[in-house]
Amino acid sequence: MSSQGSPGEEFSTTTVSSVAVQAGDSKIVIAIIKCGKWVQLQLAESQPNLLEIGSNQDETKKLLHDHELLLAKLKALEDRVWELLQEADKTAQENKDQSQVYDAMAKTLGEAWAALVSMLERRRELLRLTSEFFENALEFAIKIDQTEDFLQNTQEFESAESLKSLLQLHEHHTKELLERSLALLNKSQQLTDFIEKIKCDGPNVNPEMIQGAQNSCLKIDSLLELLQDRRRQLDKYLKQQQQELSQVLQICQWDQQESQVTCWFQKTIRDLQEQSLGSSLSDNEELIRKHEELIIKAKEWNSAVEKLKSEALGILLSKEYVEKEHLQLSNQKLNWLQEEFGRLMVERKAWLKKANDFFNSTNKAFDVLGRVEAYLKLLKSEGLSLPVLAARHEELHREIKDCTADALQEGQALINQLASCSSRVTGVHEMMGCIKRRVDHLTEQCSAHREFALNRQQLTASVEGYLRKVEMSIQKISPVISNAMDVGSSLSESEKILRIYLELDKQAKETSHESEAAAKLLTEENDFEPDEVASLSSKAKWLEEELNILGQSLSSRSQVLQTYVAFLKSSEEVEEQCQGLKEFYQTDILQKEEGDAEAECHSDSVEKQWQLFLKRSFLTQDLGLKFLNLINMAKANEILNVKNEIHIMENTMESQKAEREEVSRLRIAWQLKAAASKPMKQQWGAFKEQLRKTTHNLKLLQEALMPVSALDLGGSLQTILGLQKKWNEMKPQFQQLSDEVQYIIKESEELSGKGAPVKEKSQQLKDLIHLHQNQKERIQDYEEILYKIVQFHQVREELGRLFRSRELEFLQQPKEMDDAHDAQVLLSRCREKRAHIDHLHKLALSLGVDVISSVQRPNCSNVSAKNLQQQLDILEGDSLNWRAQAEDRERALTHSLEFCTARDEMSELKESFKDIKKKFNNLKFNYTKKNEKARNLKALKYQIQQVDMYAEKLQALKRKMGKFENKTFFVNYPNNKVNVLLEAMRDLQKYMDEFDKVVTDYRKNLDLTEHLQELIEECHFWYEDASATVVRVRKYSTECKTKEAVEILLQQFKKFITPSVPQQEERIQEIRDLAQHLYGFEEGQKYAEKIVAKHKEVLESVTELCSSLTELEEKKGNVLKMNLNFEGFHDDCIDLLKEPARNKKTIFNKGRNKEQAKPADDLVVDGAGEGQLPREVKQLVPGKEGAVQGLLLPVDVLSGKEYDVKDGIKIFLSQLLLVTGTRRARNCLQMGTCRFYTRRQDIRCSFRRYARQMRASMWLGPKTLVAFSLPMSSST
């Protein structure tokens, strides 16, 4: 320590003594310095430095411990110092003269000691502070270590609570770190401030102390920085882990909330999926109320979901979160659950509403069913009839169905829609079961209408069964009736045919019973519906009419066949009897010598046979006439070969008559011979008796003819038939009398020859002959009249029947027909019947006229024909009336047929038009479905062919329509339907015109599309050609060695490409216009964009190529044009160029004319085939005559302009390379020029050879060649 002296004085200091104090490793040396009257204590040495604080707590504690010991030792010296001061006081008292000195010395020494002690006390305080600092640092370091251990240890958590605890631990560690750090910082600041204070305020400040202070502060700062770095790193890790844990906690809490929400939603969804819709209306309404409450509650949960979704969105959008996949999945799950919940809520509400409607409908149905049940009980007590009860029951049954239809339909719809979850509709099932059981119970009580319907069904089935049998019978009979009947060529065949017709006739009669039964059911029963009755009645009447027509035809045919078979059988019997009588009369003449009794008996037997023969013969004749009469009355074409049959029958009857007369002649001859065997007297007596009897019989015959003579020809048919019957019975008598008269005449002649007195009886004989002749003529006239009058009346009655039946048909049949087939059948049948009636009418008129003319004969003067004439007049009037009606009917049927035919034809035209239109639309649709690649030019052409085919079909249909329009037969038909038909025809014409326009427009569009595709193909061809040319030119440009070659190549390329670009742009513009016209503005622009883009691409490549060729030309212009090896040849060529221009032109023209005169077909190039161009030429030369002539030689060369020979050679070879691409030309150009020879003849020969190749390779157009010739002098 030192002390300052007085300001104005300078004192020299003298070290009186020094004191060393040591305690442990600490040691201080105190120097006692005297300076004049001042005595001071100065710290001469300190180990360690007073401001040394140590490196750690242990060192600090040791330093503090040593310093405490040092202070203790120094304190022990304090008494000596005070003793010294007391001595100084004593000395001062003793030496009062120096008391001032001693006082000053005592004072300074005391102050110095106090200062020294104070400094050491500060040192101790510093060490204490340092110890506390190191203690705080140690605690801070321990806390850092603990925190590091905490961070390093794996922190496991099982729940959000444990995670929260872990976060609290993080916060606790962070807080403690901050507290320890703050405490350490405060302590370090306190320590540093204390050191600075000691350093600045101490009396013994020296460099060593300052250095010690700096070292101590540096230690403090180093330790503090080290710990703070660790703290900051830990704080970073803590924040990071805390942030991660916070994220995890946030996600965990989000998961917990999401789990709660998910559980609620899942549970609610399960409930919504499984909850019943109720079992009654009240139950359903309660469920609806709960559902409304659930809707309110769901809003809260939906808000929670929205909150979770917003939190999830924030987490997902945050960059700090790493694990987001789980969150995304959960968020998606939440979204799905929310959507599913919303959907199920809506569905649940809808199902509840539908179930509510169902239960409401059910209650209403039960109310109605209750009223129905009460009404059923009332009906049971009234005892109504079955039809009335059936009507009431049907109404009730309909009411039951109507009232339960909605409920059952709604319930079944619910069950079907919720079939996958049947538990939800259990109540609906039960309620529907109740409804069905109630309905079934009431339906069982409402059985009258079912019984009535069953009866009606059975009746309908019975009627339909009858009608079906009638229809089947008609179908079986119709084919037989539709063919002409063959009466057969023999008895067996005729019997077989007769059996067939009798069987069919029997079947028709049985079928008529079925038809009558059906008609009876339809008329008697009232159980049928009106529409059903009308339909069945119409069908029954139609079938009945058909059956009647077939029955009549069968009856007439059967009658004809029966008559014909009876005639054949009778003819056979007559033939047998005739043969027997012939044999008898021819053979028994010689056997008269037998006994008289036996002969008499035999004669009587033969006489009986003769009588039977006469009866059978006349019966057969009557059958034949009847057969002829039936044939005459039959319909036209009803009997096969009718004329032949009539002729056969007439011949048969004539032959039978001849046979009868022959037998009669043989009998008379037999009787004459028998009488000749008797004595003359007996013969004469017998003759007289026979004459008397015959005369008497003839007179009786005259009386028998009186009824015939008094016959009224206009009488009834039955009277006339009775008279004819008697007449037929009298025919054998007529024949017998005729034979007797012939016998008497023959016998009188024989007796006269034998000498009998015949003259006595001559007058009587003459009278007999005259009477016989008159009777015979009368019989013939009467027989003819009877035959014809009977036939007339039969025809008249048939006509009357037909007239009546036709009038009935006119009344029953509708005037208009809606079916062409029915109209055609009725018209054919009407015409057939009219023809038959006309035939019968003519036959009746003919018969009537013949009868009237026959009555005019003398023998028939008594027969009255007045009524017959009246009947003829009546028949004529009826015929005229009927013919007028028939014509009207035929006209109506014809109009109906024409109308139906026109309508059907119109329908066919409509169907044809629909078919064409449908197929055409399908054709358009199928073509439209194709992609752009499939709709190529080939498919388009095929589509055009198909459209043309449909256009032709449409034109053919229009021609048919035109022909149909020309038919005006139905215009005058008095029916409003014609207007409908005409309207339909006009509509169809309108539709066809519209469709024709559609087809035409579509055809035009296809033509435009075809033209568009052709333009596109041309564009693509140009693009490919231009691109290929660009590639070739670029390839050739790499082989050009000189500027001239590049220049020629560029010129030729421009000549090829320049004229075609405007054409291509015109095509593109046309493509754009067509595309806009076909597809609209926007689609057309899009359609043309590809072509435009490709065009730009090609133009860019062309521009790029031209630029590259220009750059190459400029580049080649800077290169040396010739090699030194060709200098001598250059001089020779210069001499050649000095020749007059006239010679050059002459030579050139000669060469050109010579080459042009040479046919193109005779070209031969290096052994190649005649007329063949090299492949490069075919690629470069355009295909059209008007194409650009891209291979012309430079115009300057052809015009004879003077060129340097070397340049000309270069140009020639570059042109040759461009055209032919020959290896020699390439080699020459690669060398820079041609390989020149020293002799000019070689040069000329070489160029001639190349010129020939050039001429063969360059194609300028059709049969046009370009020749090349070098201008050379005649000397070369």
From TrEMBL:
<feature type="coiled-coil region">
    <location>
        <begin position="758"/>
        <end position="785"/>
    </location>
</feature>
<dbReference type="Pfam" id="PF00435">
    <property type="entry name" value="Spectrin"/>
</dbReference>
<keyword id="KW-0175">Coiled coil</keyword>
<protein>
    <submittedName>
        <fullName>Coiled-coil domain-containing protein 141 isoform X6</fullName>
    </submittedName>
</protein>
<feature type="coiled-coil region">
    <location>
        <begin position="67"/>
        <end position="94"/>
    </location>
</feature>
<dbReference type="InterPro" id="IPR018159">
    <property type="entry name" value="Spectrin/alpha-actinin"/>
</dbReference>
<feature type="coiled-coil region">
    <location>
        <begin position="284"/>
        <end position="311"/>
    </location>
</feature>
<dbReference type="InterPro" id="IPR002017">
    <property type="entry name" value="Spectrin_repeat"/>
</dbReference>
<feature type="coiled-coil region">
    <location>
        <begin position="639"/>
        <end position="666"/>
    </location>
</feature>
<dbReference type="InterPro" id="IPR050876">
    <property type="entry name" value="IgLON_domain"/>
</dbReference>
